[in-house]
Amino acid sequence: MLRSLVGSEMCIRDRYQRRVRGTRPHHNMQRASTLLNHVSPSSHVQDLQTCQTELHAIGAHESRVFIRLAALDAMTGAGADGSIVQCQGTDTLLDWSLRVLRGVKSKAPRVSWADLIQMARAVAVEKNVRIKVPMRYGRVDAEDAGSEMGDDARHRLTSEVAMALKKLESEHMQELPLEGLEEGLRLALAGDLLGGFKHAGEGRLIDCPSDGFANQHILYSRSPLAFSRDYVLAHAAHSEIGAVFSPKRGLRC
To answer: For residue range 155-170, what is the model confidence (pLDDT) as tens digits?
Structure first.
């Protein structure tokens, strides 16, 4: 549906900046300031571009699993902070995703897990629907994203992930844990998430939304261009839930 709809990236980017909501409280603001003083923006962008090149080498169908990984990172813990890496060993698809991304990260170790995971989502969407996600980078990892998490904290996080996966097996909009996104973006993203991510990366408008989304569903049904625009905006906005950026305005690459 979306393959032939390639809109203006600048227009999408402008709308995204106006529509992204606030994020959850985060405890890594001091780390963000420290990182900003040690990594120059130009070298950071070069590292991000290295990761993009590696991710684009992965097949379109195989890359869809990264949408699942990135969505789970944003929906659990403090948000998109890379803490999902601590759940390795609890889920087969998650394990495969992280194993591949570890290989990518070895080429650019200064890139945060939070950025790499969300970049993998953006590349997967671009490869599958041929529209670029207006993503910004510079996310700061949770303090324990790259080190061993305590048993209690890891148990809480893995329980959250298991609960999120159970909810997302549903086909009903009300089950979506998408706090922080406006109505249209939630509906645009729903097709990728509901049904256990089995349609991730397809850019699919779900058939039967709840009553609260009926008007928005009519708009998207009549205007595939409006849907394609909000589909990529939704992925960009969701990738920033709970995220802390260094530099504060983020980086483009």
So the answer is: 899 999 998 888 888 8
The span from the CA of 133 to the CA of 115, in Å, is 14
CA separation (Å) from 228 to 68, 118, 144, 180, 225?
Answer: 19, 19, 36, 20, 5
Report how far residue 58's alpha carbon sits from residue 126's, in angstroms, rounded to the nearest whole number.
12
DSSP label at 79? S
Q: Which residue has the tokens 């990761």?
A: 51
What is the gyration radius of the CA atoms in the chain, in angstroms?
Answer: 17
140 beta partners: none
**Structure tokens given for 21:** 């909501």
The pTM score is 0.83
Ranges of the chain with pLDDT below 50: 1-10, 12-13, 18, 21-26, 29-30, 32-37
Residue 109 structure tokens: 């170790």
What is the secondary structure of 116-172 as a DSSP string?
A: HHHHHHHHHHHHHHS------B-BPPPTTTTSPPPHHHHHHHHHHHHHHHHHHTS--
